[in-house]
TrEMBL record:
It catalyses: O-phospho-L-homoserine + H2O = L-threonine + phosphate. Keywords: Amino-acid biosynthesis, Lyase, Pyridoxal phosphate, Threonine biosynthesis. It is an enzyme of class 4 (lyase). This is Threonine synthase. Residues 1-60 form the Threonine synthase N-terminal domain.
Amino acid sequence: MMGLADDGGLLLPESIPQLDRTTLSSWQDLPYQELALRIISLFATDIPAADLKSLIDRSYSTFTHREITPVVRQDGLYILELFHGPTLAFKDVALQLLGNLFEYLLEERGERMNIVGATSGDTGSAAIYGVRGKEKINIFIMHPHGKTSPVQERQMTTVLDPNVHNIAVRGTFDDCQNIVKILFNDLAFKEEYALGAVNSINWARVLAQVVYYFYAYFRVTASCGEEIYFSVPTGNFGDIFAGYVAKRMGLPIRRLLLATNENNILTRFINQGDYSLGEVVQTVSPSMDIQVASNFERYLYYLFGGDSARVRDAFASLARNGRIDVSRAELATVQAEFASRSVNQEETIATISSFHAQTGYILDPHTAVGVQAARELVTDGTPTVCLATAHPAKFAEAVVRAIGQEPPRPAALQGIEALPTRCELLDADRETIKELIRKKAR
Ligand SMILES: Cc1ncc(COP(=O)(O)O)c(C=O)c1O
Ligand SMILES: N[C@@H](CCOP(=O)(O)O)C(=O)O
């Protein structure tokens, strides 16, 4: 419920449960909701099992596929479709649940909450759909003005419920995320306005995303013990960090393949140990146009052997010198756990095109980044699951460039251009955003 810890750091569980082969085998055939209950219960020990079950069932009843996150086989790869929720991106898997968890806990405590979030396109609409119309919740979402896809922007700004406030910020996603962190670090403001977080700084977001790594693993392996790869298109390091948690819990993942677009700070880190900030580049996979990968801090905690003081020093160094350094031995650990490729826009468009030509399947540009990275990195025949993080209809322009035709539009997007919108255009300035929250908070 608190989002960031009071010292400005990200929260983690005290310990990560370890699963043995027998437990894993007994989960092999569970439906998604049942599996979610088993995994989330290991962490959410303060919510009675019957309540958690009903929250999970309600959250996934809004998905249009009965399997919630089905896996399909295409061109020798397994595609984990994470876009069957209300806003057609993987964020729905966590945010449908988070909206209901917030409502449940606020009701229990007799409290209200003002959510403040940042989005490069997908978190925003998924969070808005997760909490729209909820009595005790107000939501403020900042997106970088003109830098999301047109569909992403409309999915947010056409929601007119009185508890929803969209802010187009003159700046980048990093500016928006920075303002969120500044507001959460202003403890007096955080307390006065009861701020809540929907970004992956909220541990519950990561936890809900852990589930589909298990679900996909069980779909593509015959027995527990076989090792596989996951290829994850990455921006804020949240989704792939969920995979890392699954691996630490004992899921047999040989390596996580981290795929970036031209905003490749994480690829440079994994391949050369170079974590140095650059300028944000606008690409055809806009949701990954991020330099400061928020969850990287969580990974560093484990890489540094649980030494929080070193994590704090690393981020002080980032603020001072624009870079974080690790030792050779630590880099070797990183490279044993991850492999990485940066895929540029031309390659992304070419991947959508060639994949479509070979299979008839249309990839969205973010998924295409992950597919291309997998094609380059997997040379040993190990089964590989590529996370399909969004539906291609959210990024029609890029798809048309690649295959010369629009992807089919799901019902959720029909007529969205004709709907009225509401949004405020503001500077990337903390005081301006605070002022708006003061005016609209309930
Ligand atoms: C469609 C899509 N793919 C990939 C990503 C990257 O995920 P993460 O920021 O968790 O690394 C995002 C943004 O979060 C996204 O919206
Ligand atoms: N790509 C994200 C950026 C925010 O990431 P989050 O996972 O921390 O919420 C988006 O689409 O908004």
